[in-house]
């Protein structure tokens, strides 16, 4: 199904004046007039998430229409101005395509931007953290096992002794791998690789957080999430290629 322009999301001079199919590079240049931080990887990510569906030439090259460009610009505006996750943006655009009259929520800057706190600051609110007893109960392991995981840096507590909610997922995966004979010492390489990938994401996000435009700084967290998703996909594809077996 071809997408239609996003009503009420603004207009692009390039889209209205050029009706010929455009390459991804042409689309990137047009978008950068309003969104200087956008990249080709970002456009491909939005395509992978089903937010735009460019045509393909017989040789596999993407060809974007004016409507595709308008839709991409609309998606980027909704992220920038309304701080909406992609799932909500997709639902909004789908509703517009069905002819429904829908309203976007009023722009609400992230709490960190309002308070002047960095997205990754250790002093931000800790509502998404749990205590040690909660972590032990959620993962169904004993104190000695958790202490062993901590000794290898697989599970890390904050200064207040509490844990990010993601620690539950990490702990369950470590436990599942343990059933195949993989011990915490074997997983140190996985931990190190994740930290290196996080460093790469941080290199991209850090300039956005330091940007003079507050909207660009607010966009840093969404960019970090998208880069993390792409990194996970790349890791899975490389692992599948190395093992020569299909992954779920």
Can you characterise this structure?
The chain is mainly α. The chain has 12 helices and 4 strands. A hairpin with a 5-residue loop joins strand 1 (55-56) and strand 2. It is elongated, with a radius of gyration of 22 Å.
Main sheet properties: 2 strands, antiparallel
Helix/strand structural class = mainly alpha
Residue stretches low in confidence (pLDDT < 50, at least 5 long) are 4-18, 108-127
Strand tally is 4
**What is the beta-strand fraction?**
under 5%
Query: Based on CA inertia axes, which overall geometry fits?
Result: elongated
Q: Averaged pLDDT, please?
A: 78
Determine the number of helices (DSSP H or I, runs of at least 4 residues): 12
In order across it, which strands form the biggest sheet?
1-2
Order of helices and strands: HHHEEHHHEHHEHHHH
**Helix content, binned percent:** 55-70%
The separation of the N and C termini measures 26 Å
Rounded to an integer in angstroms, the radius of gyration calculated over CA atoms is 22 Å
Short description:
This protein is mainly α and 248 residues long. Helix content is 56%, strand content 3%.
